[in-house]
Amino acid sequence: MPAKRIIPCLDVKNGRTVKGVNFEGLADVGDPVELGARYAAEGADELVYLDISASREERNTFTDLVRRIAERINIPFTVGGGIASVEDAARLLEAGADKITVNTAAVNNPQLVADIAARYGRQFVVVAIDAKQVDGSWMVTTHGGSRITDKELFSWAKEVENLGAGEIMFTSMDHDGTKAGYPCETFARLCDSLSIPVIASGGAGSAQDIVRVLDEGKADAALAASIFHYGETTVGKLKKELKEKGIDVRL
Question: Rounded to whole angstroms, how far apart are CA atoms 197 and 208?
Answer without folding.
Answer: 21
